């Protein structure tokens, strides 16, 4: 894993520090920006982003969102609101791109799970600044299968070695876990829905999901295609919620074809 750098941003009347890394920085292909899942971080991606950048001869930017990885933790008393992904997409991500002097790039956003939802929300406002978008196991609305799996994660965090395993990837593992878990299981979050925003997207989309995703049904990516008919779908067999771990070769192949079509 490469060395991490840090950048400070002013957000919501405070300063936060985000951990980031460049991948394959000398490549001349498009810039790929990776947005991790709801319990993710730079290190939780493992080496898949670097492998994808090598395979596609692309540059990569991977970063840990606020409260994750080695980025600024969430204070224990801070409760996230149902629009927490909107805030990340419309407030923090534009600030990060500006601070890294990437405003004139036309990147491809590659998001997983909550990161895919954030990428979709960003594209709903900034499609004109993007080459394209890969949404891996995205959430557009809340399903019972998601809530039951997230409730199981809560039990496992309290009662199994899950907390110790996650602690290797986060400066403050409780900040990362409870921020995510508490808001997803909050009664107000059941009505969370970003279909209206997704309908505004005009850049090319590849939507990918495992056939055995334990956090969402295939209605999630099929809904993207209903709202944005040009969307390409990839449904991966023998694959759960993390295609970059369960079917990394197949995922890389689909993204490689998508990127080739963009440059053509």
Automatic annotation (TrEMBL):
Q: Where is the AB hydrolase-1 domain?
A: 32-250
Which keywords does this Swiss-Prot/TrEMBL entry list? Hydrolase
The GO terms this record gives for MF are:
hydrolase activity
PANTHER family named among the record's database cross-references: ALPHA_BETA-HYDROLASES SUPERFAMILY PROTEIN, HYDROLASE
Please give the name of this protein.
Alpha/beta hydrolase
**Origin organism of this chain?**
Alcaligenes endophyticus
């Amino acid at each position: 894993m490469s060395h991490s750098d840090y950048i400070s941003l002013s957000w919501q009347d405070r300063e936060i520090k985000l951990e980031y890394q460049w991948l394959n920085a000398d490549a001349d292909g498009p810039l790929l920006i990776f947005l991790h899942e709801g319990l993710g971080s730079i290190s939780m991606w493992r080496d898949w982003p670097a492998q994808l950048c090598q395979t596609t001869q692309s540059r990569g930017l991977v970063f840990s969102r606020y409260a994750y990885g080695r980025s600024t933790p969430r204070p224990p008393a801070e409760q996230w609101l149902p629009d927490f992904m909107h805030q990340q997409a419309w407030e923090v991500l534009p600030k990060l791109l500006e601070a890294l002097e990437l405003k004139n790039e036309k990147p491809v956003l590659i998001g997983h799970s909550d990161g895919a939802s954030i990428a979709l929300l960003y594209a709903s406002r900034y499609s004109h600044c993007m080459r394209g978008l890969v949404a891996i196991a995205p959430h557009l609305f809340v399903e019972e299968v998601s809530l039951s799996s997230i409730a199981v994660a809560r039990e496992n965090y309290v009662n199994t070695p899950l907390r110790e395993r996650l602690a290797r990837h986060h400066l403050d593992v409780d900040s990362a876990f409870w921020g995510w878990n508490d808001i997803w299981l909050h009664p107000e979050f059941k009505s969370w829905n970003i279909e209206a925003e997704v309908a505004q997207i005009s850049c090319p989309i590849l939507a990918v999901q495992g056939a055995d995703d334990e956090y969402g049904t295939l209605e999630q990516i099929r809904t993207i295609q209903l709202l944005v008919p040009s969307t390409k779908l990839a449904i991966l067999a023998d694959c759960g919620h993390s295609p970059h771990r369960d079917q990394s070769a197949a995922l890389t192949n689909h993204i490689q074809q998508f990127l080739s079509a963009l440059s053509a």
